[in-house]
Amino acid sequence: MKTLKETTVLITGGSRGIGAAIAKRFAAEGVNIVIHYLNSHEKANETARKCMALGANVMTISADLRSYDQLLRMRDKLASHGVRPDVLVNNGGISHYGLLADVTEQEWDNVMAVNLKGMFLASQLFMPHMISQRYGRIINVSSVWGLSGASCEVLYSTTKGGMNAFTKALAKELAPSGVTVNAVAPGAVDTEMLENFDATERAALEQEIPVGRFASTEEIASLVYFLSLPESSYITGQIISPNGGWLT
């Protein structure tokens, strides 16, 4: 079993929001970090600089999570540099807000491809290394809506529910190989994904949450970090929801 400082973590969608907070949390512990992004080149570099300032070795790399070929090239490029992630954080994803009656087939396919297919492809491509060394962590960033569902977010809720089922099933498949698979399903987090809500809607939402506020990205990152620890080896197949008591 590796110590945490001997490991490498790959964070998909790591350029901003929760992904950037996760990268910085690992960087603070001296973990080797790979920040994946699609188009946010400057944001990825900005996050990388912050991680390097904390003393971490950092790489940034771009790939479309919807494309097997691009993710395969990403894996091979990392391997050519001697980088083989021991911890995979499937954080990359997009949201969708609107009535199901208004969802187009193209919108459905796109959100499904990013949120579910991307997680599937990344896990499939990077887990063989974990299996071969009999150690690894796969942590999927889901959502409270994958547990309870949300009106006007049927498409997004469906992808996150699928992510939770994927987590439980793959955890059973990989447990004999020493690889844990868990999901973190946050409630409302103060990120760009809340931009669809105006001030009145935000205030109303906060009132529904027993702790009376949104989560910070750092709070979610701390849970992801905990699940990556070598001593978290007995936690697998779990959907853990930091939601301020919103859903119990």
UniProtKB/TrEMBL annotation:
Signal peptide stretch: none
InterPro entries, sorted: NAD(P)-bd_dom_sf, Sc_DH/Rdtase_CS, SDR, SDR_fam
Gene3D superfamilies: NAD(P)-binding Rossmann-like Domain (3.40.50.720)
Pfam families: adh_short
Keywords, alphabetical: Elongation factor, Protein biosynthesis
Molecular function as annotated in GO: translation elongation factor activity
Stored NCBIfam families: EF_P_mod_YmfI, PRK12826.1-2
Family: Belongs to the short-chain dehydrogenases/reductases (SDR) family.
Stated name of the protein: Elongation factor P 5-aminopentanone reductase
Organism, scientific name: Paenibacillus chungangensis
Gene transcribed to yield this protein: ymfI
